Amino acid sequence: MRHAAASADHQRIDVVQLIGHRVSRRDRSRIELCVLRPNHAKSWQPEREVQINAPDEWLAYTSSIEHRACLGEHQRDKWHILAVHSHWIVLAIKGRRKDRKVMFRVSWEGSPERTSITERSARLRSSAMVAEYWHHWGGRDTALLDADIREA
Which domain of life is it from (predicted)? Predict the structure, then answer.
């Protein structure tokens, strides 16, 4: 199993407390969190950035409240990939045919959970993130040469 390195783009942000949440004004399927900073300043930040840069504070806040309810019934089940963490190949034999699927272990914006999804599903959700992941490993073909192979 391959593991992605931590991104150098993300640095921990100073958060005293998370004090609120709202639906993002830019994307109705995402949430913004109100951040109270050490100088008592408040700012609205994308949940994705808070989840990556202040994970302890994010988890404490989201564990105590059903924050995704504000998205409404049509958006609360729409999930955005936060990160791709690893990949492997699943082999299934169907008759005389071998079926190979590339699988990803991913985390999600707004959730502490990690789940497994197909590469195809990940690409449909965020082709740029999949391309960045493969680039990190020297390209898809190179990365798959050393991938774990599991039977379905």
Answer: Eukaryota
